Amino acid sequence: MNPTLEIFSQGEEVVTGQVVDSNAAWLAQEAVQLGFTVTRHTSVGDKLADLVALLREISERADCCLCTGGLGPTTDDLTTEAVVQAFGLPLEFDETAFVQIKQFFDCRNRAMPDSNRKQAMLPQGALRLDNEWGTAPGFALQGGRCWFVFMPGVPSEMRNMYLEKVQAMLQQRFVLQPQTLITIKTIGIGESDLQQRIKPIAIPDVVQLGFRASLAEVQTKLLFPHDYPSAAIDDLVKSIAGKIGDAVFAIDGLGAANGDLISLLDQLMTDGKHSLAVVETVSQGMIASYCTALPWLLEARYHQSPDISNDTFTLAAKKIAIEVRAKTGADFVLVQLHDGDLKAIQDKDSAIVLYNVLLTGHQFHQTTCTVAGPGKRKQHQAALLALDLLRRFLQHKDL
């Protein structure tokens, strides 16, 4: 059985919601990849008694705990003091830590405030974790059954310290059997539809199935035990992806990660040496924003409300695409039109029908879809669905 791990975040700003605890989410993913079983995330404000109580609780139930925050020089940074009280350890002045803190200020031609001396006081017997990215050294120690690791709360400092100092230490201290996480990424399909499509597939009880939805994509996650046969993983993933269909744009975990939709498009467009011109309506420049600084985007126009005369939207889009290609010389032209006035775009209770047309060579490819919700959501959805038409063509040239 994999060792259990908890994540403990300290800081009033975290508890009150002034700061989103991105540290905990990032550390949890890292810990799972190493082979830990993450059991809890806990946040505590700047109250010494609460910190002491929580440290004692964790020391009795977890094998490891990754802690962030509360190592700064000010009076509300109480983590080290809480550790001392929780485990009855005296503080000791760490000369090496003090020299490193002072050097941080010297390199910036700044005088070190006296309050920073506090950061060089570490619990007796603790393993110092040098901070090469800030002033607060981290430290690690055994408390009860639990191996505690204390890191700064500043995300950049914490992540560097974890990757450079902590990760290897954890691998040496614990017998870890990493599980295999496969993430099937889709666009243009919701969670309920995904679940319905894969329902006929028998997923073994030992495989954890989960879904995660965001504006940009919906992920189907499969977590396999460490000893699950690789051939069986491949077979199950292929079966699920096959049931979902061409809404799948990437599968992470079987090899090199593909990233998000834009990263994938950049790779496909670059590898194929293609160029693109875009005409936007509902997305209102969002397609161009997503493709910022990508050299294959030759031109992006915004039309507030194109005059389609008596044509259908699809026919109008095709005419526009031909005109744009004649002017720009782009290999591909992507045109987005919509049915509905500008008020409907901003009205959260009104849905908009989108008509996306892609001109490639002498062929047209098209999709019709509906976006709903507030104006900003419609804008992002419209951009991503238009770009997904390009992605589907590039991945499935037989469309």
Describe it.
The protein is 38% helix and 26% strand. It is α/β, with parallel strands linked by helices and 399 residues long. The chain contains 13 helices and 17 strands. The strands form four sheets. A six-stranded mixed beta sheet has the order 2-1-3-8-7-6. It folds into three domains: 4-173, Molybdenum Cofactor Biosythetic Enzyme, Chain A, CATH 3.40.980.10; 180-258, 2-Layer Sandwich (Alpha-Beta Plaits), CATH 3.30.70; 262-395, CinA-like (Maf protein). The longest helix is centred in the last third of the chain and has 21 residues, at 375-395. It is elongated, with a radius of gyration of 27 Å. The protein has helices spanning 12-15, 22-34, 48-61, 79-87, 95-106, 155-173, 191-198, 230-244, 261-272, 286-290, 313-328, 342-346, 375-395, and strands at 4-10, 37-44, 64-68, 91-93, 121-123, 127-129, 138-143, 146-151, 180-186, 208-213, 218-224, 248-252, 276-280, 297-302, 332-339, 352-360, 363-371.
How would you summarize this macromolecular structure in one to three sentences?
The protein is α/β, with parallel strands linked by helices and 399 residues long.
List the helices and strands and how they pair.
Layout: E1 4-10, H1 12-15, H2 22-34, E2 37-44, H3 48-61, E3 64-68, H4 79-87, E4 91-93, H5 95-106, E5 121-123, E6 127-129, E7 138-143, E8 146-151, H6 155-173, E9 180-186, H7 191-198, E10 208-213, E11 218-224, H8 230-244, E12 248-252, H9 261-272, E13 276-280, H10 286-290, E14 297-302, H11 313-328, E15 332-339, H12 342-346, E16 352-360, E17 363-371, H13 375-395
Parallel strand pairs: 1-2, 1-3, 3-8, 13-14, 13-15
Antiparallel strand pairs: 4-5, 6-7, 7-8, 9-11, 9-12, 10-11, 15-16, 16-17
Helix pairs in contact: 2-6, 3-4, 9-13
